[in-house]
Design brief:
alpha+beta; 17% helix
């Protein structure tokens, strides 16, 4: 299995949680916007990432 963000325990995809975690995001638009696609929030690096990205902090999750 490829260690991509989409399969990482630190990858948050809940749009309401992303908006709560990124102050001011709703001023720019919304986490629910179509341009967000499947992007999510990396809770390790505090960055918005593509589900296809990967890094050394990968931690497999069973829930996805």
């Amino acid at each position: 299995m490829t260690p991509a963000c989409a399969r990482c325990r630190w990858f948050e995809t809940g749009r309401d949680r992303i908006e709560a975690a990124v102050p001011g995001l709703t001023v720019l638009g919304s986490a629910f916007a179509s341009v967000g696609g499947d992007d999510g929030l990396c809770r390790v690096h505090d960055t918005i990432q593509s589900p296809r990205d990967r890094c050394a902090g990968f931690a497999q999750t069973e829930a996805r």
